[in-house]
Amino acid sequence: MNFNPFPVLHTKRLTLRAIQTSDAFDLFEMRHDEHMHEYTDTIPDPSIEDTLKYIDKMTVGVANNLWIIWAIELLESKKVIGSICIWNIEADNLSAELGCGIMPSYQGLGYMKEALVCVVEYGFHELGLKTLEAYTEKANIPSIKLLNSSGFIATKVVIDSGFLKNRDFEMIVYQKHNK
Q1: Exposed / middle / buried, residue 147 (Cβ in 10 Å: 0-12, 13-18, 19+)
Q2: pLDDT in tens, the chain (179 residues)
């Protein structure tokens, strides 16, 4: 996989583009929010410096073709409201995993579905992936509804033992296959 030049994607209401240092305030707003970490073994960024380190890490991963992550930017206001990525790319069997997050105040408005449909199409048609997987905690009903309505099928349940949080996460694995 080669993500240079970085693929900028467009939907009706969104621009999906490379994450930049100038997005730190918007991403900190999302990554600092406790609700964003409810169903994952992650913790809120305590400071904007932590968000800047995250941006650097993501940028290096894209430069090294390990993953691709897009900032989800509102077309009209240019506000970054979330992110979506393709990662854990397996070149031998042409599969990868999706990850996404959107600020709670923008959830339920169709933005993530818009971004997800666009990224799935990119993964299948531009990267030639055959399978995309998404993991979501069984209690994350909005995520489950999003995946079901986007044509993903639940295939199994795995237990993810938390490292940062002392608990197990019951993760439903969803798959979508390129037809």
Answers
A1: buried
A2: 788 899 999 999 999 999 999 999 999 999 999 999 898 989 999 999 999 999 999 999 999 999 999 999 999 999 999 999 999 999 777 999 999 999 999 999 999 999 999 999 999 999 999 999 999 999 999 999 999 999 999 999 999 888 888 888 899 999 999 98
Question: Which position has the token pair 């994607």?
Answer: 9
Domain limits, the chain: 9-130
From the CB of residue 169, how many other CB atoms can be counted at a distance below 10 Å? Answer: 19
9-130 CATH choice from 3.40.50.150, 3.40.630.30, 3.40.50.300, 3.40.50.410: 3.40.630.30
